[in-house]
């Protein structure tokens, strides 16, 4: 009888450990999927912005003939942001996207000097769409970073930290700008 109780206790302990292992694994899978879904949401909004920027440049070209450098900066920043979508690290992509944000903000600031442009319906519509997209990007980035924080914290907590690495889970990167890229955009007047 003592042996059967010992075997039963071992079997119960093994079942509990297996349950905890499965619960840990499935929890980390759910969090990793939330991180991937959060990144996908950001990517959709970034793609939308990439599609809007050429229309914005075309809309302002005729009005801002003396702002060639500003228009070229927007075009160059968009090209770099689009090229960073294919296989670039998250940090590289974040830097490229922040540069595009700064270039578009500089364009909007420069447009203040052109009353005819500010009255253009096409420009106003594009400006509203880009501003709306920027707000969506900010929300999606905030959601993504929260998912990453939860996922990385779950991996670091005991006893998950003992299992996460051996199960193939790696910490995710936050979508953030480098310290040097956090300065405000410089507007030349």
**Separate helix tally:** 6
- The portion of residues forming beta strands comes to under 5%
What are the secondary-structure elements, in order, as H or E? HHHHHH
Q: What Rg, in angstroms, do the CA atoms define?
A: 25 Å
How far is it from the N-terminal to the C-terminal residue, by CA? 90 Å
**Main beta-sheet annotation:** none
Decide which structural class fits the backbone: mainly alpha
- The total count of strands amounts to 0
The shape is rod-shaped
Mean pLDDT over all positions: 87
Unreliable sequence segments: 179-189
How is this structure best described in words?
This protein is mainly α. The protein has helices at about 1-60, 70-85, 90-110, 115-120, 120-155, 160-165. The protein is rod-shaped and about 95 Å long.
SSE layout and pairings?
Layout: H1 2-61, H2 68-83, H3 90-111, H4 115-118, H5 121-156, H6 160-164
Helix pairs in contact: 1-2, 1-5, 2-3
Which features characterize this protein?
189 residues; mainly alpha; 6 helices; rod-shaped; disordered C terminus
Task: Briefly summarize what is shown.
By secondary structure, the protein is mainly alpha-helical.
